[in-house]
## 1
Amino acid sequence: MNHSSDSRSEKGSILVRAITRASSQNINLMEVCGTHTVSIFRHGLRTIIPENIKMISGPGCPVCVTDQGDIDAALELAEEDMVTMATYGDMLRVPGTSTSLADLKARGRDIRIITSASQCIEIAEKDPQKEIVFFSVGFETTAPATASMLLEAQKKGLENLSVISLHKRTPPVLETLASDPGIKIDGFILPGHVSVILGHDPYRSIPERYGIPSCITGFEPEDILSGIFSIVRQIEEGKPRLTSVYGRVVKKEGNIKAKELMAEVFEYCDARWRGIGEIKSSGLAIKEKYRKLDAQYKWNLKTKEVEPPAGCRCGDVLSGRITPPECPLFRTICTPSSPVGPCMVSSEGSCSAYYRFRGGAESWNR
Amino acid sequence: MFSLLQISGRCRKLEQITLGHGSGGRLTEQLIKNITELFPSGRKDPSVSDLEDCTFLSNDIAVTIDSFTVSPRIFPGGNIGKLAVCGSTNDLAVRGVRPEWLVMSVVIEEGMDMEEFNGYMESAAAVCRDLGVKLSAGDTKVVPRNSLDGLFITTCALGTADTPFYWGMNNIKPGDRIAVTRSIGAHGATIGAARYDLGSKTLSSDCAALWPAIKEITKDRSVRAMRDCTRGGLGTVLCEWAEGTDLGIEIEEKEIPISSEVISVCDVLGFDPLYLACEGCAAIVFDPEGEDRILSALARHKDCSEIKIIGEVVDEHKKMVGMKTDIGGMRVIDMPVAEMLPRIC
């Protein structure tokens, strides 16, 4: 859709030729980030890479990995009369056990969609009678903004604002997947946005300890093809390492300021990932120093262990064990207009992407 | 194993009318079907589909109706008043119908500034003057504060067919070309930018009346069908054509005109420009024989100066829309299913 499209298609065909020539075996590559999943579909990349390369969508959609018990606890709080709940748009339609924020909103509850954490400060200042609760999810990409908002709220002494922090860390889940003998991943396409914050170091154990080639990759189709090429070469050479094809944005040391912000406000905690289970040190909890702003304590939130909806295999989809069409509910009972699991809700969820793009090449010409 | 009872219970619980039902995709389609099934049809339209933008009451009189509520009410490139007249007259224009009469109902929230309200009516009237459309009947209601968000305007437009050919999707044939009359997504991106406070200075809605351009081609035999790419955007129109005609559609991403501002807003909010609403952009299908005539006639008008052929109708991949992407891949374009929401990261 732009003037450089001729050169883009030229670049694309060069990269695809290079991948095809270099690649001699059947391999599974996992794109960890939901933005990658959508980009792969949106640009039709599955239709141009060689058939021996299978792309698996990983647990990189923050909405999808949020545990149902955590969602239920937040929904319960949103039912309180004095509470205004602010959250990111993707969370709105995620079904809890008996309702969703979209349902509550339709019933007249005060639910606000925000695009940046700092908007919570404005809402809290504008409406001092209301209790603003920020239902905050996301990886290391959104956590620094939450941290910075919490610091500002503390400085301003805002008493009607608190945060449910369900932020999650990327490196621990990668290790969990890499060490699971039941999952065959030959290479990781690592998330570009998260890497902008974290830099290179947190991923080094993946090739070094688990022998899985990994490449930090951007979101343009050329970036993704370059990432695939880098991993294919590592596999063929038998020398797994960490590479980056996103050097124009990602610095080796990451974003030091953002990391400091996170370290000031958050501490690691064990966190439950939907469908994957509890992963040690994979969550970001608000430090004691900022407890007044922690909704967990302020509202005494109790997270119950909840069984996922019967038949829903989001967990297996998130860990790459099955593709969405292999789930018995896919397209039959679970659709984007009536989602059962979160992978169908979020625009970046694998099931939603498979549904919207009809699995890409597989259904074309049928 | 899972219990079906449990699953169906869950589905029922989710069945409320939500904003998604208003977004122009699958949910809207369901909602409309629920309503129309209950009523006797008053349609005299030879077209087989319910999915055209207006319908014929007799051999030459056509009618359409639309309600307008937009937040913010004033946006770069227009306001709710201008939108209300452009929107419904465009629904006539794209079937080759000259808009002539307007019936309007306004529902106003108590407390609205009189000067602000008059401003919207003046904008609406200005479009009517330009088009030669007369206000024939109307209604006003004022409702208590907080029972609606400011102002709802409903406009019903009537007109007389200016083309003898009944433009509509039942005319579409394999080999036909598809064009869009201007760059896509400007209205949706402008509203999105305003709503999420992105403060774009250069972005402006494409809100415009299409009749002055379309009337130049009403006698052209090559025109098959035309649609106003409003709610649901270009993507939805193409999907409805493919499904409604039982034919396939192939488009090329690199041919679709789109401004860099719209792309930026989409990048930030995670929107897909193919599904963003337009308010002065039509998709048109025509026999390739008329290509030069149609393109040059429409391109003379400022609102269609970016007109561009984006693809064609094919006999394969029935009911499906495929887009050849910039990088050389093939992407299936499906109907959007719910309201587009800004993503997390």
## 2
Amino acid sequence: MGFLQKSKGRRRKVCPFMADPKLVEQLDYKNPEFLRRFITDRGRIVPRRISGVSAYYQRRLARELKRARAVALLPYAAKD
Amino acid sequence: MYARQYETVTLVNADSGDAGRDKVLARIREALEKTGGREIRLENWGRRKTAYRLRRSKATKALYLYTLYLGTNKTVAELERLLKITEEAMLWQTIILDDRVELDAFDFDTAESGETIMSVKTKEAAERDAAEAAARAEREVAEAAARAEREAAEAAKAEEAAKVAAAEVSAEPTEAESTQDETEE
């Protein structure tokens, strides 16, 4: 999960979906393995300020993540 | 005639086995038939571990069924009503994919032959498991053959050793006999 590490220099983050249009096809609640990249190990959705996802795709991502949660393909945030 | 395209994911109690699956499938078909819906495709994603313990049923495993179909809001209402009265169906989610499909122009063949990412991955995983099992079985057979060969070689060696020993034993008495003869003379 490279995007979770703090970069030393100030590199501009690029939205992974804009950079690689093929990823957009993968953006589906029926593909939980792919969506796992965008949740923390406790199940929370990674904020776009960290992942660099554009606002447009973050909205879609959140929708698909929540759909996947509803059918128990992905966890809701773990209680602590 | 216009219809809507929906997909429904249903989680079936994994303990209810084939009977439970068939019951849920019958309900889905019943709902489609009653309301003039048309089934496009059905996928079985197999038994999976759920990401969390389900409410009420407390299940941690479920059989995932996926249906893609054309219908109206009545189809979905009837389907969900029927699932509600089916004990084996634990959880379901219906998503609208297209709210205006022209029935006559709809390309059923293409839609039928499609496959969701999950279905592809499920099949891949099953194939991988099968390949691993086959490789394991092959390895076991090879190991068994090697073991048998080793045992056969050991047995042959033992037999040879026994033969040599027997020869020595049979040779000794003759010597003894000859010496005995000599002394007798």
